[in-house]
Amino acid sequence: MYEKLSVKDLWKYCHVWPDDNPYDVHKLVAEAAEAIEKLEAKNKELESKMHDSFTEHLLNQISRKEKQIDKLKVEKSKLEKELELVKAEMGEAVRDMEAIMWVSGEGCQICKHCIEIHKEPYVQYACKIESRGCDPKWRGVQGGKDD
Questions:
Q1: What is the C-alpha to C-alpha distance for residues 112 and 146, in angstroms, rounded to an integer?
Q2: What is the pLDDT of residues 18-54, one digit of tens each?
């Protein structure tokens, strides 16, 4: 809009005519246009700085999040290795327990082939596969997913 500022427009809106004007209207219009141009340039500069600052802020946030993700990936890898070790140790413990159950002939109550026979006032245990011979297998965690 300031590009269209002219003495004629100023006189039109201010009812100032060249003969009645004690001020140099041409100079006032030129100064106003120059001030507007400076303000626009400063505004563009500030917008650019704000954009650059915001972009830098976002890049810093992304970098921090990527570092957090990397740390979590390392932790996940450690936990997965630990879980595999625990599973392997549990498998070995179960195999050992089953071998002890077979050798000792006891432990029917924790065998998955075990059935309870209720005879008041006692509970007896019997094997579902007794005819095929004893092959003790751990029944799994009671109340858990193996139940």
A1: 10
A2: 555 555 666 777 788 888 899 999 999 999 999 999 9
Global pTM reads 0.50
Tell me the torsion sign for CA atoms 137, 138, 143, 145: negative
Please report, as a single letter, which amino acid is at residue 104: S
User: Residue 111 CB: number of other CB atoms within 10 A?
Assistant: 22
> In whole angstroms, what is the distance from residue 147 CA to residue 71 CA?
36
pLDDT in tens, 55-113: 999 999 999 999 999 999 999 999 999 999 999 998 898 888 888 877 776 767 777 77
Say if residues 29 and 10 touch (Cβ distance below 8 Å). Answer: yes
Give the separation between CA 21 and CA 8, rounded to whole angstroms: 13
Closest CA to 93 of 141, 143, 147, 144: 141
Q: CA-to-CA distance for 31 and 9, rounded, in angstroms?
A: 15
Instruction: Give the H or E element holding residue 100.
Output: helix 25-104
Amino acid at 56: E
d(CA 12, CA 123): 113
